[in-house]
Every structure is written in C-alpha cells, then in structure tokens.
Amino acid sequence: MEGRNGAANFSLQEVDVLHFLEDSNSEFLEVQSGGGDSDANPVEGEGNENEVHLRDSWAKHVRIDNGDWKWKNVCNSPKNIIVSAVSGVSERIERQFERNPSEINVLEKFLTEEFWIHIARETNIHAELSLHDIKPGTETKWFPVTTDELKAHFALCVLMSQVKKPSLQDYWTKRKILETPVFRETMPFSRFRDINRYLHFASDTEIDKIDRLRKVKPIIKFLQEKYRNMYVPGQNIAISESIMKFREIQHNSSRRTCGLKIYKLCETSTGYCWNFKVYQGKATDVESEVDEVSKMWDSEITVLKLCEKLLKGGRTIYMDIWCSSPSLFKYLLDRDTHAIGTVWARRKFMPAIWKDIKLERGELTFASSNGILAVKWRHKKDVHMLSTKHERPDMEETHGQDGGVMLKPNCVVEYISVMGGVYAHDQQLGSFPVVRRYCQGYKKLYFYLLDMTMLNASIIHRALNPQKKRERYTSFRVNIAEEMLLKIKLPSYPTRGCLSQGNKPLRLQSMQWAHFPSKIPPTNKKAAPSRRCKVCSTRGVRKETCYECEQCKIALHVDDCFKIYHTSVLL
C-alpha cells in the first residue's frame, strides 16, 4: 500500500512485499502498517516490530479454501455497477402538494383520514366490549370517540414531549405556578385518560393469536407502505437495529439493554426511514424457493426483507456487525448492490486463519474472494470489515476526538462517515419521545411509530421547502400540534371547568418596593383634609384630592395622577 509519498513510507521489507503483491499467482496474507497516532510511521532498519509480522505472513503463503470461498491475499476486483438510484420525494406524491406545503399538509399524507377512522372504529368497539365487563364502582362516562378527538389526543401527546412534567395529572393542574392552559382548554383529563385506556388498533376477533404484534399489525403495515411510497432513497442506505425502551423486554442480560428491537433501513444523508421491521423472535414468515436464501441466518433474511425492493439500483448498503456476512454480501453483489459493514470474526466463510494472526495497533491484514474484500485492522481492539466496493484498504488520515491525526483504512473511514443515518434517526427520536408509561407494550410501539412518522414528515417538509432546510425539528413538532388543534372540532365537554383564578406567587414582590395610595390622615382642624394634587399643579390646574402616596407623602389623584407621578420622568 502506498502512502502520501509513495513507497517511501514503507520499510524495505514492505516494499518487497508490495512488489510481490503485483504477481497474480502470489497467495499470502498481507499485513500493513497504519498507525493509531499522527506520528506512527513505520521505522526502517532493524528493530521494526512490523517486520516480524511481515516475514511470518510471507512465509505462510496461505490460501483459505472453504468450498466456494477461497480467500486470497490479493487485491479485490470490485464489480463496476451503474448507479441509477435518484434520491427525493416520490414524483407521484410531489405532484399532490401545493407549492411550499405546511407541516400539517405533509403529515396528513402519512396519517390520512383513513388512518384515524380505523383507529376510532376499533377504539369504540373495544370500549363497548370492555364496558360490559367493568366492575361496579369503576364506571366511566364514556361516549364514542371521534377522529378529531384522536387528533387532539395525539397533539397533546406531542406537546407533552416538549413540556416535561413528572406525572400525567400535572398537565391538568390548576396551580398557577405549574399550569399549562392548553391541556385543560382542549379536553378534560378524564376524557384523555379514557382515550388512553380504550385505545385499540385491531379487531380481537380477526387477529392471528400466534402473531406477537397482532394488536398493532394494521398500523405497522399501513405505515410501512406509506414510508415506501412517499420517498425514494438515494445511493447510500444503512441498516441497523434500534431499541425502543421497554422494561418488560430484555434481549441480552449482559448488555443491560431492555426494550423492543426494531430494524430500520434509512437513507444515510437525510436519516429518512424507508422501511422497518419489528423483531419478534426467529424469522418464521420467510419462504423462498431460492436455496441460497433458505440457508441464510435470520439477520441476513431481515436485511433482504428490508431492501428487497431497492436491489439492482446500484445502491450501497451499510450495515453493522449484526447483519454482515460474506454470503449476504455475495448475494447482494450478484444483484448489483454494493455492501460495506463490520462483521463478526467467526462468521461462516470468514478467513479462518485470521484467528492465529496477532496484530499490533495500527496494523492490518486483508484478503479477497468472490468480489469481496475482507479486512482485519487493529485499533484499540480488532476490527473486521467486509466491502464489495473497495479494491484494497488504503490508509487515510482522520482527526480523532483529541484533535490528533490518525490513520485508518479507507473502508473504515467511509463506514464511519456514512453510517450516521440510522444513528441520527435514533438521536432525534430519543430527544422527544411521545411515549408515556403505558402498561400495554403495543401502545408504546404505536407512539414510537408515530414519532418515526413525524421525523419522516419533517424530512419531506424540508425537501419541499428549501427555505426551511435549517428549521429545527422541535419547531416542526410544535407547529404540527398547533395546526392540528386549530383544524379540529371537539365536542362540548360539560366538566371542562374554568381556568385557575388562584393566587399568583409574584404578587408578593410588591411588598419590598411598591407605592400604595392612602387617605390623607385627619388633623385637629379637619376630619377629612385635602391638598392640591402634585400632577395637576404641574399642568397648571388647581384641583385637590384627599389621597396621597403612602411612602412619598405627595397628594395625588388615584385614577390617573398616581400612575403618572410614579412612571413619568418629565414632572
């Protein structure tokens, strides 16, 4: 591998190895020196520790034979794929928008009236069935919910994520210091609580009892179709897993991560989630006549299900360590799709000889097979990468968190810079979760999916409004809630009540500095004395008053002169 100054960056033995690489018949595992620090350059002459690894790898001349997988220590020959993917809002959807559409207009393309009608119907049916079995003394004043009430309920949930309070009841408090009037003005707490209680999304008589997501399955299918129809992802897409916090589910006790696992396919440049899949155990819903697919792992099948409609478009898929494997990369490459990702060292068909190679920090080794480049690089620990896009792992300079310069393989640099799509998506969702402490896990998932929908809507809104590309996501959410509350028509709630008229704590500040009017005290000659008003005298008007300022002892009319005297500097 050549550095910035050509072969001068390598020791003598390394230059010999590079010449040996040019021979197409040579088959050995190559170890290169990168460097974890800015001054970590190979040292020529005796005493260079890298020479030991180079001599060992040169002497082995290993070829790894694993059936169709023959890993050779030669440069990869990437497949030349024509890129035909164009990123942007779907043309059919874009024609339906007016020029510079508002936030609510974009969201209504995702959450259509059909969406709210379905939830209202299922909620009313579920409430009617539940009220038959209700215990005496726990009756509620339930009446059928409307679509506008569901929209108001959703808008209030969005505002709850912006205005954080310790409990749900605090949003309807009458205490002046804690009050948020919009909640009490929209609907009473009892109605909001009843909608939470009976919120439902699927008929209990028609759902599949075996399906773990049966209670929210219609919502998942509806949103998956909307995500795919609204937007076309560009050349670079990423697949990774996200965790929706949920204490009743724990996937791995050693990692202490509790929640529901969701796999997402996102565009790396915008973070738009084009497809997703909720993890519910081993894959049982995948049937394929292709023998190559039937032998894949569940993680590999999940990747194919997420991107099956994006293959053969010249795209590049970036994926994390859970998804990657040589067999999956070969399957994607055969369908004109590049792939880059980290990988487990013990994945099937990975170079088995690598487990015996110990690398120092900054060193790497690589091999290729079937159009795939496999790289093992030592940083703080061993990093294993697969790529169908790179010919060889050339080292590139990057800046670390401490400002120092580091050398990393080009495939690692590209992976880190591009993989941020999914991570940015999760960071936005983690900042403003529209999730309350519900007992039912399927309702948590419903609100999480609505969060994802709002984030996707904000991405499309910025794409259709170039002048708002820098608009904050927080402003988008608040505007959605405000516009939604303005457009709906709610029923008349008899128990809504009036806003608080309680004492205001700031009223006591006037004890320290305020001036108050008072009656002029009586004298021996007059029981109700009066004097000329100071303000009227300044204006040349002779008027008397029986009031004065308690602190200033100046006679003033209470109606206007008292305020003018204490606020005007022109007297």
TrEMBL record:
Residues 30-52 are annotated as: Disordered. It comes from the Eukaryota. Residues 105-457 form the PiggyBac transposable element-derived protein domain. InterPro entries: PGBD. It holds the Pfam family DDE_Tnp_1_7. This is PiggyBac transposable element-derived protein domain-containing protein.
